[in-house]
């Protein structure tokens, strides 16, 4: 592939002020509560990047199709042609590049990573991009496995010029927030909030939800969260201040809540999923959603600065999604169940009465099927599939649909 440096644009110091950056970030986090807001939010993101078109897609690499395809600025007919004819070409170019990267945080820019000769002869460029005057696209990756990837693609019109270092730097600032919003997305059914009072809507969720002030003071906890705090779960209430079972997790949780209160533009500095329990305990994770700004979130609890969603892996739902997505055998599912419950491989082998080498063989098969190489990556992948709680973008077959944990009882 040819390389050609992106043209210089506006000075790096003019990327965006925190105040201006907080506006699209507020809209992005509103999408975590209402996925129906993605199209107008994508349009706002495109304006922020001074781009003409934008799309949010989940790409199936085996079937060469879009499982999710939300867009703004695209001509409907050309968007349809893109979906029907050109997913294979898009997948091929992006996965070729992704396999060479040490991190998915890097941006793929057409003018940098594709040669002019390729662009001139590309069927996708010829049929979809040139008719709209699109001369460059920057791709920001939200996740990547050997079966699929999710990305935001931002395209610039000829009058806007090619992607510059400013857009790349801006992408680095927004990417953590986009990932966090997509991870949390669909955790709440906004329609149920509109139909009922906040407490009733939150109590309908099986995951724990806690609304806090900037000092981690508990303003509201749904029924599931109260149950966790009263029965030795992964969170505790210490004089109505939220804490985690693990002291290190309590510090990380407080940091995320304080960042959400002070300046949500920095919330990407915290982990997407905060593990609340020690390594020798069954894993439980929290996601922190800022509530200080944004039109929709401020209606829930005016004094709240953060909503914390607590999910404990469900042995049927969590590993079941992974088993269906990657065709795991019954023996492999048993191994995965045990590992997700916090047991070591040796303890797992002893529990099932098999040799450790046999358990290791099963684990190696799971690694090969899921495309990961370490147990921590496997746990993260399982949590990514279950933590959106409504199935989320990694639930193959029914992307963005409600799953078992988040469905009202």
TrEMBL record:
Domain of life: Bacteria
Signal peptide: none
Chain segments annotated as transmembrane: none
GO molecular function: DNA binding
Gene3D superfamilies found in the cross-reference section: Winged helix-like DNA-binding domain superfamily/Winged helix DNA-binding domain (1.10.10.10)
Region (Disordered), start-end ranges: 389-409
InterPro entries: Sig_transdc_resp-reg_C-effctor, Tscrpt_reg_LuxR_C, WH-like_DNA-bd_sf
HTH luxR-type domain sequence ranges: 321-386
Annotated GO biological process: regulation of DNA-templated transcription
UniProt xrefs under Pfam families: GerE
Protein name (Swiss-Prot/TrEMBL): Helix-turn-helix transcriptional regulator
The organism of origin for this protein: Microvirga tunisiensis
């Amino acid at each position: 592939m040819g390389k050609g440096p992106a043209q210089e644009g506006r000075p790096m110091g003019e990327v965006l002020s925190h105040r201006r950056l907080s506006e699209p970030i507020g809209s992005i986090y509103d999408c975590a509560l209402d996925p129906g807001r993605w199209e107008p939010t994508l349009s706002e993101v495109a304006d922020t990047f001074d781009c003409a078109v934008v799309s949010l897609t989940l790409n199936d690499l085996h079937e060469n199709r879009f499982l999710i395809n939300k867009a703004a600025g695209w001509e409907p007919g050309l968007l349809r042609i893109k979906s029907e004819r050109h997913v294979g070409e898009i997948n091929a170019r992006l996965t070729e590049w992704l396999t060479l990267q040490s991190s998915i945080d890097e941006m793929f820019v057409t003018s940098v990573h594709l040669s002019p000769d390729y662009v001139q002869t590309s069927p996708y460029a010829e049929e979809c991009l040139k008719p709209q005057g699109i001369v460059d696209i920057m791709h920001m990756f939200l996740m990547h496995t050997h079966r699929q990837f999710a990305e935001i693609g931002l395209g610039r019109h000829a009058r806007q010029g090619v992607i510059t270092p400013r857009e790349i730097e801006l992408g680095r600032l927004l990417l953590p927030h986009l990932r966090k919003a997509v991870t949390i997305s669909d955790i709440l059914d906004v329609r149920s909030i509109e139909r009922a009072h906040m407490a009733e809507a939150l109590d309908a969720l099986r995951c724990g939800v806690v609304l806090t002030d900037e000092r981690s003071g508990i303003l509201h906890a749904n029924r599931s969260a109260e149950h966790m705090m009263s029965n030795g779960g992964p969170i505790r209430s210490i004089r109505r201040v939220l804490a985690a079972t693990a002291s290190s997790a309590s510090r990380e949780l407080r940091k995320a809540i304080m960042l959400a209160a002070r300046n949500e533009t920095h919330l990407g500095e915290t982990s997407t999923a905060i593990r609340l329990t020690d390594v020798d305990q069954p894993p439980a994770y929290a996601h922190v959603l800022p509530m200080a700004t944004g039109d929709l979130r401020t209606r829930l609890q005016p004094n709240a600065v953060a909503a914390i969603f607590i999910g404990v892996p469900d042995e049927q739902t969590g590993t079941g999604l992974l088993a269906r997505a990657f065709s795991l055998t019954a023996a492999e599912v048993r191994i995965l169940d045990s590992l997700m419950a916090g047991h070591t491989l040796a303890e797992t082998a002893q529990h099932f009465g098999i040799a450790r080498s046999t358990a290791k063989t099963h684990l190696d098969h799971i690694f090969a099927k899921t495309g990961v190489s370490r147990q921590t990556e496997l746990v993260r992948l399982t949590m990514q599939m279950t933590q959106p709680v409504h199935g989320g973008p990694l639930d193959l077959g029914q992307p963005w649909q409600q799953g078992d944990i988040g469905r009202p009882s």
